[in-house]
Amino acid sequence: MKAITNLCVLLILFATVNNYSTNNSSQKGSLAYAFDNIQRVRIDFTMPNGYVRHLMIGFTPDNAATDGVDYGYDALNMDTYPDDLNWMIANERYVIQGVGNFDDTKKYPLGLFLTNSGDVKIDLDRLENFETPIDVFIYDALLSTYTKINENSYANTMASGEYLNRFYLAFKEDNDPGIFAKTLTTEEVSLKNTQIRYLNNTKELYVNTNNTFNIETITIFNIHGQKLSVSPRINKSTVKIPLNSIRTGHGIVNITTNHGSVAKQILIQ
Q1: The pTM is what?
Q2: Alpha-carbon 231 to chain mean position
Q3: 3-state DSSP: the chain helix, strand, coil percent, rounded to 5?
Q4: Does residue 123 contact residue 43 with C-beta atoms inside 8 Å?
Q5: Which residues form the signal peptide (predicted)?
């Protein structure tokens, strides 16, 4: 799909009606109505150096745009900031994204790119053309947390690196009873009952699947999503892994077995 600049998109999204050449006033009116009724969510990303990146997502009437790349609705990131937050569409970085009708069940992926470690913030700037206010969240897929940004910032101290498939813009928390009220299979119950503990005395990670599954790989992340250690090819149902070389603090343990994965947050002391 042909790439377009931020300026082109702004002209298309906000000033197309003025540049639309036709003698048919009804066509002008319908086009103006369509663009005037685009619902917009504007968010601001504050970088570690204090600079602010403005992002926008627009919800189009009659599904004029899609979740993919749409010529005339999406604007590629043409900047080279050392620290940035962008919409991710087809593995490319965008600063404006046009999608279909507003659907509060959808999540839209964000890519966080940091050359510098430091404090970052994501705020809701404003909503446009919504008849009633909507909730806006930043979803952290690593920690499975939702931060509502309508009145408060999402704030975190992040290490340098690229964070893909972790942060999303969301519009409701997935905590409906229907999602968690399903009947678990025997395998799912066993995975949820896997023992994952930090042993203070020996500074080891203890994992026990109760002789139900074999542990294949154990990966430990810090709360910023950085990989701290990987223990592959374990092939045991019980294992202890020394953590002497890992700094103290909260960590995420991801256990991959021959029947699925399970994760848990632990405190390394």
Answers
A1: 0.62
A2: 26
A3: 15, 45, 40
A4: yes
A5: 1-20
